[in-house]
Amino acid sequence: MSHSPAAFPTARLRRTRQSNAIRGLVREHTLTVDDLIWPVFVRDGEGVEEPIPSMPGVVRRSVDKIVEAAREAADLGIPAICLFPYTDPSLKTEDCAEAWNPDNLSNRAIRAVKEAVPEIAIMTDVALDPYNINGHDGYVRDGEIINDETVEALVKMALAQAEAGADIIGPSDMMDGRIGAIRTALEAHGHSRVMILSYAAKYASAFYGPFRDAVGASGALKGDKKTYQMDPGNTDEALRLVCRDLDEGADMVMVKPGMPYLDICRRVKDEFGVPTFAYQVSGEYAMIMGAAQNGWIDGDKAMVESLLGFKRAGCDGILTYFAPAVARKLAGE
Ligand code: PBG
Predict the structure, then answer these.
(1) What is the C-alpha separation between 81 and 129, in angstroms, rounded?
(2) Distance, CA of 68 to CA of 65 (rounded, Å)
(3) Ligand 1 center to residue 66 CA distance, Å?
(4) How far is CA 249 from CA 147, 157, 194, 295, in A?
(5) 328 CA to centre of ligand 1 in angstroms
(6) Using one digit for the tens of pLDDT, what is the confidence trace for 64-80?
(7) Does the CB atom of residue 282 touch ligand 1 within 6 A?
(8) Distance 271 CA to ligand 1 centre (A)
(9) pTM beyond cutoff 0.85
């Protein structure tokens, strides 16, 4: 502590809490629209907005509706959206080839948004789970997740996204060596401008449940993801992963989930001083919305407070399903 408080009544710490004006003056951290990345779910069809029951207020959108949503987000000042595809079960295979189809749902959405809303940055997801017949982020052989062959597939997937116009590649798969392999491939194919936001410290979490419903992976997933996603008891390992991903060419790093892992956000920011993001995941969103819908908490206030917590923990930005709602609130609407 740089200054220990004088004794009462010389020091009355309530003095600086006495009014809105004074509280604003001494506030250390604020949330702004610049801090937001909005994850959105893409599905096929036209003019479709399909609700996701476990994520009240969140929908899967057809590409035309994704373009409308991107327009709306850009108009609100949201800097980036992140696309997640809901893939038709008939396109899920053992080899996950749909993942690098230049015309898959996600790549079509990238092109459409780039064309119509060039000012918004587009982030993608790199992992095999939306395309994998068994719901895992990597190839499965004899019950094991195969690392190196998965990385080759992820490279093809990331290149197809970069070709389509993605600005930020988001590897969420937690295989070893994928950041280096993707960075090398991007450089070799003229995509030196394309950024990588690595899901560096991603934990094997119960809070992803609603997301797996949203992308249609819940039913397919056999077993758990504990051999590739992190053990929730670990902190030092998160720093090793972040260090490794930065060395391999990540421009930005992420901690995921968010609220149960704010200590990790703080350690990463302090240790590395790099652009640090948190993902307020589907289960965190669902908890706040569920309690709010029951009248148990004030949803709007809980939304803002939960997001401010990430700023206090050292994050530069947050992936959050609340992005448009909080942007509207910050704009005073
Ligand atoms: C999968 C992926 C997941 C999320 C983003 N990418 C789920 C998982 O690892 O099973 C979770 C996002 C959320 O819960 O909001 N590659």
Answers:
(1) 20
(2) 5
(3) 19
(4) 19, 17, 11, 46
(5) 26
(6) 999 999 999 999 999 99
(7) yes
(8) 26
(9) yes
Residue 281 Cβ < 6 Å to ligand 1? yes
How far apart (Å, rounded) are the C-alpha atoms in residues 249 and 171? 12
Residue 254, helix vs strand vs coil: strand
- Tell whether ligand 1 has an atom less than 6 A from the beta carbon of residue 125: yes
Tell me which residue of 84, 80, 73 sits closest to 122, measured CA to CA. Answer: 80
User: What DSSP line would sit under 7-58, residue for residue?
Assistant: PTTT--GGGGGSSHHHHHHH------GGGEEEEEEE-SSSS-EEE-TTSTT-
User: Which alpha helices (DSSP H) does the chain contain, by range?
Assistant: 20-26, 63-76, 105-116, 147-164, 178-188, 209-214, 236-247, 262-272, 282-293, 299-312, 323-330
Say how far apart CA 180 and CA 249 lie, in whole Å.
Answer: 6
225 catalytic per annotation: no
Cα(180) to centroid of ligand 1, in Å? Answer: 21
Q: Measure the CA–CA gap between 140 and 5, rounded to whole angstroms.
A: 59
Alpha-carbon distance 307 to 287, whole Å?
A: 14
Q: Which domains does the chain have, with CATH numbers?
A: 36-330 (3.20.20.70)
Give nearest CA residue, ligand 1 atom 11.
208
Task: Please name the amino acid found at residue 113.
Answer: V
Ligand 1 close to Cβ of residue 134 (< 6 A)? no
pLDDT of 132-156, one tens digit each?
999 999 999 999 999 999 999 999 9
Using only C-alpha atoms, what is the Rg of the chain? Answer: 20
Pairing type for strands 195-202 and 168-169 reads parallel
